[in-house]
Amino acid sequence: MKKTCVATMLALGTFAQAERMIVSYDNNGQGLKNGHQVLVEGDGWFAVELDENGKSAMRGKGGFKKMEADAIRYALSVYNDDAGDPTLQQLTPYAVYQSQADQLNLQSGQKVCVIDSGLDATNNDFDWSVITGDNDPGTGNWFDNGGPHGTHVAGTVGAEDNNVGVVGMAPGVPMHIIKVFNAAGWGYSSDLAHAAQKCTDAGANIITMSLGGGGANSVEENAFDSFIANGGLVLAAAGNDGNSVRSYPAGYSSVMMIGANDADNNIADFSQFPSCETGRGKNVRNDENICVEVTAGGVDTLSTYPAGMATLSAATADGAGVASSAMENLGFASGSTYFMGTAEATDGGANGKICMIDRGNISFHDKVANCENSGGVGAIIINNEPGMLYGTLGDPNNTSIPAVGAALEDRTYLVGASTATVSVGASDYGYMSGTSMATPAVAGVAALVWSNHPTCTGQEIRDALKQSAADAGAAGKDVYFGYGIVKAKDASDYLTANGCQGGGTDPEPPTGEMALNGDRSKGGRQANLSWTGGSTTNVDVYINGVYNNTTNNDGSVSYSVNKNSSYTFQVCEEGSTSVCTNEITL
């Protein structure tokens, strides 16, 4: 009785369900809109939601011409991975296109230090002649995998352009690999501080860290401060908990915090977004260097794995590669295609063929089982919403034929194809998601840009990446994207047009139209500040992020300083932490 009741309710719900329709009318049809909520209208037509009774009534009214479904239009994918089998051809991940890394050629002079879980020597998609490494005590050899993470990260930075596998952001860039994770997959702040020195000793000018944790540590922070002070650039992942918690080392001012976006320029739902505010009470101030500064592709990122550790799919239709995602069954199949609809029953027409199946109504397992029980040799299940279909066959899995998911955007091509192949197997290439994937992407972009502007410092490259990033999300800088999605060619063009110092030390326009300049005199023992703007009688001066004193808003002040130390200055309207100048370091 319960089943009958549910079925009746579903049937009634389907009949009564309103559908958005476009109604066209002639000169006598203005009255068709009476009694309806018009959603949008144009010359001789309007859109309205109607159930079946409403549709029938509408058709019988004077002036009615025709009615048609108001079809949904989806945003198509902005960027896509190349489709195909990386063991047979070279694939370019979508983030390379998205970040314009394919529009800039790597020059000499760069070395990226990858602090992670090691780079497995079994993967041949690297120029091993320019890769070196170090181990921390207890981690094992840097060239043995401590899991796939480090190999995936390194591939995103610099997998070689060699007509096979994948290509990194900065293909073939020299790398120094430092293995800091133990067998349990973690390390200490001291390990990172020690690794920073090893990066320096190896001649690296960029450090990338796809790692983090809670709590700041002064020794760790000082190590990265020193690397930056010597002209380097340090990048670290914002974190993957999808909250506003600040993770370290990304949270240090000297470290560039990287968030993750997807292929459609949307922020990843897991990407952390800490505030840019620091200090308490009157000393609260904005520091853009302790929050996300830029983002890069970090959702479903294709890169290198230790040999055979990944499971990867490949599919073709009429001989052309089609993007796919693997389900559990390993194997290879090829043949003519057969469209099974939603494959809710066996169908003898699928015998010996690759089943093209629409998602919906029953489980993926049952769809594949019906294909296999019909004699089908492989299955491609097509999503019913925009994007790639990622699915599993569940447990227990009583099927054995290779099966993959496919994107809705490819449905027309797949259903119309005459032949197809499906392959699912162990691979040296696979997908991962996280700010861990976005961070090496930005490191690779930085290496590309810096190699074309070798006289710049790491800080100047950092500024250029922010100045040239493509705004995304809310207009202007925000806590999710920072300045936006990183763009290699645009950053290089920015430096060509403006020079290394074109971005200044704070590329964000000064808040409240206040601006600060300065210099040092008396052999470096005096710091001289000059500013413009501000509406209060007095101003507050901050030194190294800490309130120092209040002085007259007369546009200048000087301080005695240690000639062997550097100091960061900022001037704010008295009592304000938002109406401030840019920061300068003298």
UniProtKB/TrEMBL annotation:
InterPro entries: Peptidase_S8/S53_dom, Peptidase_S8/S53_dom_sf, Peptidase_S8_His-AS, Peptidase_S8_Ser-AS, Peptidase_S8_subtilisin-like, Peptidase_S8_subtilisin-rel, Subtilisin_Carlsberg-like. Residues 108-318, 394-484 form the Peptidase S8/S53 domain. The active site is at D116 (charge relay system), H149 (charge relay system), S436 (charge relay system). Keywords: Hydrolase, Metal-binding, Protease, Serine protease. Gene3D superfamilies: 3.50.30.30, Peptidase S8/S53 domain. The keyword Metal-binding applies. This is S8 family serine peptidase.
